[in-house]
Structures are given as structure tokens and as C-alpha cells.
Amino acid sequence: MSFPGKPALADLPFDILCRVFVWAQWPTLSLVSRVFHQVSRSMGVRARYFMVEFGRKHVLDSCVGLASRRPQAMRQDTVLLLLALGADPRVDNQWILRHACAHAWTLVVHRLLSMRAPLDQGLVAQDNGGTHNTQQMLDSWRGGARESAIGFHQNSPLLVDVHRDSEAALRTAAEAGHSDVIRMLVAAGADVAVLDNEPLVLAAAAGHTHAVRTLLGSGADASADQSRALRTAVLLGDANLHCVRLLLEHGAEASAMNDSCLLAAAYRGDGSAVPAATRSVQRRYASRPAPASFSHVQLVELLLEHGANANALSGKPLAFACSRNSPRTAAILISRGADVHANREEPLRQASERGFLAVVELLLQQGANAHAMGEMPLLNAARGGHLGVVRALLAAGADAASEGGRRALVAAARGGWPLVVSELVAHGADSSDPEFAACALNSREIREKLALQPPPPSWK
């Protein structure tokens, strides 16, 4: 029977509930006794209270147990006490094992992996191809065969299945980077090759070099699934250089999947054009300092040393580096044989369109053709108003008086870039072109720069 306005016992603060629990167990203790307060604060008493509050079957349940109702009390020593008091670790699909692996609770993991079914449960044990239940075991005990009864217990099945849910415990430990936990799970029989070596992929993707080394030493295959672990490790940049080198030394192929590792590293390049870290990267570095830069320059050089093709997919690595304003990466690729003329001067066209002057100058020094595709680099630079790139291309021999130069002049006028227009006209572009005049007359700055007459008013 509940009374309106009267709080329930479960609504009281946790410390008071523990004191009530202790008082109920030992009524002779005084409320003001120092012993009472010391006992009520002890972890042993609190663990027993949790067992009474949640029950043996649910105290380690992530949804209705200690983790959800009293998360501040979810500690390694508390869990050890709960297991000693008989808490069931199999509840909620063995959640407590995955939680212990994620938080490097080695004592809890060791306890869970060594727990066997108790003697007083009707579990079946295997013995010489036959089965013996609890009653047979007790009969042997009554007959004085104590060693036989102990053997039954030692051969009884483990409470926790390390292979549950496709080695979920091992995958959790690998993603968190806990090498000690990984060794314990592997010693208990966990399969490091599960799901095409996914534990290795997870450890490499998070940049856990020690965990990667532990998995490789336990039999993980670095070349599995077309070197998927290497392809994910490259995404973290030079901060993950040691992990990438370790995978390459253990058989990962730098040229796997059409040199996708090199393509990814070249696309991210020097890191200057890389946006802010994504949520996935921020989550991986939540427990450790994030790298100051997401540069991939050293990774590009390392991959090329291990056989990656600098001209993969018609020179895409160099084109990616040039499109991302990565002159250092582009220089490394060129020094390793990348063709600056690949795909009709695509690197120069990409850099010119985006206005990356340092990259354009590098390509021109290496012999890139400024006249490619009918002065297309000049057109791309003029359309974007990149004055420095326009000057560099004109200095390299781009012809402003050609048809390509005329189109570049019209594009600059249409975009409203008076300085670019003046530069092109100074190098021979035809300012009397009708299409250019129609665009230039709509811009006051261009008219003033070239001393053009404004258009007549449209009204009379």
C-alpha cells in the first residue's frame, strides 16, 4: 500500500539505501556507530546490496542492472565481488565480458575466462566419450572418489563462451587497443582470423600499433581481404606510420586494389587542404592526444618504397595530390616516376583550376605543358580569378592571343576579374572580341581598367 506524497524506499539516495540494508542485516548496530558507517561504505557490503537489489541474473545486465541504474558503482573491484557472490556473467549476451575488454579490466577478464559451471547445477561434462550428470558425480563423491568429483568439475564447460557473437570480445579489445586483454583472449582460444581478420582491421584503423603487433604475432594475416587492415590504417596519416610499416613488414601489399592505399594517401597529401577531423577520427583519439597534422607525406614515400605504383590508374595519385594543394606529396611522386603529362596534363589542369600556385610552379618546372588541350590550364585559372597562376602560365609560354586565350579572356570578364583581364590583354588577348565586350561592359571595374564606354541605358 502506497501513500500519496510518501517517497518509496527505492527513491532514497544510494548511500542511505546501503545503510538501511546494513541495518536490516545487523539490527543491533547503532545508527551513530562508527562501525556502522564503515561497514556500509565497504565494497563487500555494497556488492551484497547490489545482489539483493538486482538479483543474480540481472545485476550484470547492461539494460536493467548495475550499469544502467548505478553507473558510478560500475568498477572492476565491484564486478569481481559480484562474480564471487554468484552473479551470472552470461546475461545480456555476455555484456560484462565485452565491457571488461573495452576498459582493460584484466582481472575481470581473467576471472570470466576461468569460471566454470558450479557443481550443484545440472550441467553435463564429457568423460571418455560419455556423459555424466550431476547425480553421477554426487554418487562418485559418496563412494569416496573425491578425485573423480574434482575431475568432473574441472572438465565442466566454461560459463563464458569466448567465441560468442563472432569473437565480439576480441574485436572489442582490438578496437580499444588493449594488448594484454588480446593475449588473454587468444590464450583462451579466440580466433584472430574471424570475419576476415576484423580484429586486426579494427586495431589498425584506430592506430593501436601494440595491439596490431600482438595480433600479428598471434597469427593474424596482414594481407587478408586485399590488405584491408593496411587500407584502413593509411587513413590516419603519418600519425599511424609505425602501424603501416608493421603491416607492410608482415605481408600487406602496398599495391592492393589498384594501389588504393597510395591513392588515399596522395588525396590527403600534405594535410593543408584536409578539413577538420571527422567524428570517427575524433572518437579514435578520444583517449589519447590527436595528431597535430593529418599529413600523409611520409606514408606516400613508405608505400612507394614497398612497391606502390606512382602512375596507378593513369596517374591519379599525382592528380589527386595536385588537386589538394600538396606540393610535397607531388614532388615525391614525381621523383618516383609519376608522369606530369598523364591524362592530358590532368595534374596541371587540376592545380590551375583551384589556384594552387606552388603546385603549378612545380609542375611547370618538371616540364608540364602549359598549352594542354588548347590552353585549358589558362582557361581554368582565368575562370577562377587566380592571378598568380595566370601569370605563371603566361610566363611558361601560354598563348593569350590564341583561341584558348580568347576563351580565357571571356571567362575572366564573365567572372568579374579585372586584374586577370588586364594581364591577359597585356599579353596579347584580343579585347575587341564581341563576346568579351558584351561581358566586360557589364562590369564597372573592367570598364574602368580598359577605358571602355559604358553601355547605353535601356530606357528612353
UniProtKB/TrEMBL annotation:
Keywords from the UniProt entry: ANK repeat, Repeat
ANK repeat start and end residues: 165-197, 195-227, 225-259, 343-375, 373-405
Repeat listed as a keyword: yes
Record InterPro entries: Ankyrin_rpt, Ankyrin_rpt-contain_sf
Superkingdom to which the source organism belongs: Eukaryota
Gene3D superfamilies xrefs: Ankyrin repeat-containing domain (1.25.40.20)
Name of the protein in question: Ankyrin repeat protein
Organism listed in the record: Coemansia asiatica
Lineage, opening ranks: Eukaryota, Fungi, Fungi incertae sedis, Zoopagomycota, Kickxellomycotina
